[in-house]
Amino acid sequence: MSVKNYILAIESSCDDTGAAIIDGNKILSNVVASQKIHEIYGGVVPELASRAHQQNIVPVVDQALKQANITKKDLKAIAYTRGPGLMGSLLVGGSFAKSFSQSLKIPLIEVNHMQAHILANFIEDANDEKPTFPFLCLTVSGGHTQIVKINNYFDMEILGETIDDAAGEAFDKAGKILNLPYPAGPIIDQKSKIGDPKKFTFAKPKVDGLNFSFSGFKTSILYFIQKEVKNNPNFIEENIDDLCASIQHSIVNILMDKVKKATEETGINQIAIAGGVSANSEIRQRLKDGETAYGWKTFIPKFAYTTDNAAMIAMVGTLKYEHKIFTENTAKSVAKYHI
User: Fold this and answer.
1) Which residues carry a binding-site annotation for substrate?
2) pLDDT tens readout for residues 130-152
3) With 0-12 CB in 10 A as exposed, 13-18 as middle and 19+ as buried, what is 318?
4) Which parts of the sequence bind Fe cation (predicted)?
5) What is the percentage of the chain residues whose pLDDT exceeds 90?
6) What are the CA-CA distances from residue 267 to residues 233, 261, 262 (Å)?
7) DSSP letter string over 60-79?
8) Which residues are part of a known binding site?
9) Which residues, including other chains, have CB under 8 Å from residue 11's CB and lie 6 or more apart?
10) Which of 17, 167, 171, 277 places its Cα 20 to 30 Å from the Cα of 188?
């Protein structure tokens, strides 16, 4: 009978409280409690997020154990998100993980949230095939936009990243300009399916190397909308689908141009995606199209493993457990935590 290395993972970097149980690379449970309160504010309110984590964390962990059909005594280690993220939110998850591991006298494993997004590609049911080293990963979320070269599980090199705003923020800010509810990304994606992506054009940032910039892009959308609404107060309502399609197409063009450049510069044609914005349908399709157009081999994880979730933290936890990479109980949470 094989030994079961059950690991509990906790994710609390932003506004979702997550807990998952993993054995090897097989996810046995993946529970997420989302916080709806932020919708009325048009963005995440850090203080409210940390309070909600305090309310959610015990029930979420309890549910994860029950769904995996194990008890806390079966656990071999506790993994948690150390950063990056909102400090108050990180402290809730980190404090719980430290206390729980100490009470059970089992190892504690700290996890970099962005590394976890990338390594989610190695979860058993994440995709049909796993990437081999080295590969490139386009990591896109509300707070990060990066192209990362992955040499092995614990050796990652950032080749390019945003110098100002992230792609996810560009989606949400564009949505705010269009009077769409928060978070706007999924709504823009949905409306884009029936809109004309070439109806409107916006400023394309000129950034050297493999870095990104979305600040000027957002400003160009704002000025364009202000000008059009001045001439026609109903401009947004009359053109909402085409506006969403054009904005999304522009953002995805920026991302794909840099990915193509990265493959040319590195000679690596294995491309994975990670992060919440990688759930976007056009990003997924354009990446898949690259297999035919450029000879890429792409790895696109299932939706459940793209947004913030504890399963990806668990995957890193099990890899570190296998390599006996444990964490001292004195480790401090960090809002900025580079790969």
Assistant:
1) 139-143, 172, 185, 189, 280
2) 999 999 999 998 788 999 999 99
3) buried
4) 113, 117, 308
5) 85
6) 50, 10, 8
7) HHHHHHHHHT--GGGEEEEE
8) 113, 117, 139-143, 172, 185, 189, 280, 308
9) 17, 18, 19, 20, 80, 81, 93, 113, 116, 308, 309, 310, 312, 313
10) 17
Structural domain spans, the chain: 6-119+306-322, 129-300
Q: CA 323, CA 325: separation in Å to the nearest integer?
A: 6
> To the nearest whole number, what is the mean pLDDT of the chain?
93
Cα angle: 280, vertex 281, 282; to 5 degrees: 95
CATH architecture, domain 129-300: 2-Layer Sandwich (3.30)
Rounded to 10 degrees, the C-alpha dihedral 158/160/163/166 comes to: -90
What does the alpha-carbon distance between residue 144 and residue 313 come to, in Å, rounded to a whole number? 17
106's tokens: 């089992």
Q: What is d(CA 248, CA 235) in angstroms, rounded to the nearest whole number?
A: 18
Q: What is the pLDDT of residue 70?
A: 98
- 121 with 52: CB under 8 angstroms? no
- Using an 8 Å Cβ cutoff, are 120 and 311 in contact? yes
Domain 6-119+306-322 sits in CATH at 3.30.420.40
> How many helices and strands, by DSSP H and E, does the chain display?
9, 10
Distance CA 143, CA 321 (A): 28
**Stated pTM of the model:** 0.93
pLDDT of residue 38: 46
Lookup result for tokens 């997020």: 49
> Known binding site for Fe cation: residues?
113, 117, 308
Distance of alpha carbon 81 from alpha carbon 333, whole angstroms: 8
pLDDT of residue 1: 47
> What are the pLDDT digits (tens) for 47-67?
677 887 799 999 999 999 999
